[in-house]
Amino acid sequence: MYASREDIGYDFGDDSKVGSKPIKPNPNIDGGWAWMIVFSSFLVHILIMGSQMALGILNMEWLEEFNQSRGLTAWVSSLSMGITLIVGPFIGLFISMCGCRLTAIIGGILNALGWILSAYASNVHYLFLTFGVTAGIGSGMVYLPAVVMVGQYFQKRRALAQGLSTTGTGFGAFLMTALLKYLCTEFGWRNAMFIQGAISLNLCVCGALMRPLSPKHLSDKSVVRSDSEDNGAKALSHSTETIKSNGALSEEPEKKEEATNEEVLESVQHTETGGNSRSGRNMHGLRILKTVSQLTLTVRKGFALWYSSYFGAASLFTNRVFVAFIIWALFAYSSFVIPFIHLPEIVKQYNLSSQDNVFPLTSIIAIVHIFGKVILGIISDLPCISTWNVFLMANFTLVTCILTLPLMQTYVGLAVICALIGFSSGYFSLMPVVTEDLVGTKHLANAYGIIICANGISALFGPPFAGWIYDITQKYDFSFYIAGLLYMVGIIFLLIQPCIQKKQPRQKSTEEAQ
């Protein structure tokens, strides 16, 4: 059973000193402004993840506009989705130095800029830079803080808060599919991207709502651990508790370095105060020196925190089951992403556009995905049910749907398969729990960050691979068959490794008995 969960958030306080001084709890934790944070995160999921799941509409427009191969054109969408997840560990550096609010606001500007610049694209390669890279990095800079802030503001109701905020992905996929389809029909894809860029500026508003908690309340909050769900657990990869456990960052050198920097700043400030009689040029230079010193201190602290968190987890790769989990993640997420990118064109080839316009197949996946996450989470919490078994059954259902989808050529058949894909992909809410069981709560932060990066790589290469297979065979059938078979290989790795680890202790006990 998987009864325990780990905190989602950044803990900047000193845990060792919390017990000695009683701190008055912040009224905004588990209430008050915390629900505004949930609302902000919900909108972020709609505007970022929802928009990415609706890129199949734009992919068709790009194919007609630039007349390039499907494999090359699919790179635009996959770059945006993949980079959003892959840059997560590096965005942690910005959060350590600037905080969640400023990072999210900058990311919102970058994301909107990527959409707007893409409206003037003259070729697919231009879209690689503007939409794939610029909008992708901007999305990552908003998405991670949105998950982190929910973890900071909630203790007792964290599972509920994370669940409510992440349902924005399903609602966003449904709403953005309809919106982009309408905008492309009425105004053309270029104006549609320009309008979507203007809408994405609301991400800056979402970032502004991410009011940081004071360090003392973050310290007090780190004492109480409660349950968490969904892909938001990757935010744990930056927690101070994990950094301390890695042993990569000692306290004494840090204190000495901090004292030295403070002495420098004090000397600069003293010189500035005593130099009123000097020229204005010297005063201006001293102010610049003071600002640079403070900035250098902040950057060095943030980099040390980030580096020790992510590069102090090499021991995780000695866990064979965790390595098998990474291999699974490299193949799994692409099977979920490929239908969102290529289904609109498949519908067009089957002459089902009129029915799909009434209720798009990608919207069916999105809506049922919401219920799948909730229902699978409830089932896995039952005392008589193993979360690992629920996780495996959902994976088997999803891979079966991926292999069966090419056989369906009617709207009803495709709708049923898409509904099953949406429901079974609800296992995403179980991934933090399964990861915790594999590596323990101590290493959950870094482990889940690695899994999310693997999912990003899967999203990066999945859609272009499917398009490349189509360019060779002139059918999408083999794209789904190969993706399904690779997915099955990942599931087999998950099944084999636990069996191997169970046999090893038995062999040792037999040897001891002899």
Automatic annotation (TrEMBL):
Entry keyword annotation includes Transmembrane helix: yes
TM spans (from-to): 33-55, 75-95, 102-120, 126-148, 160-180, 192-210, 321-341, 361-379, 386-405, 411-434, 446-466, 478-496
Record's bilayer topology term: Multi-pass membrane protein
Protein name (Swiss-Prot/TrEMBL): MOT14 protein
Region (Disordered): 220-239, 244-282
Record Gene3D superfamilies: MFS general substrate transporter like domains
One Pfam family it belongs to: MFS_1
InterPro entries on file: MFS, MFS_dom, MFS_trans_sf, Proton-linked_MCT
Designated gene of the protein: Slc16a14
Location of this chain's protein in the cell: Membrane
GO cellular component, one term: membrane
The entry's keywords: Membrane, Transmembrane, Transmembrane helix
Gene Ontology molecular function terms on file: monocarboxylic acid transmembrane transporter activity
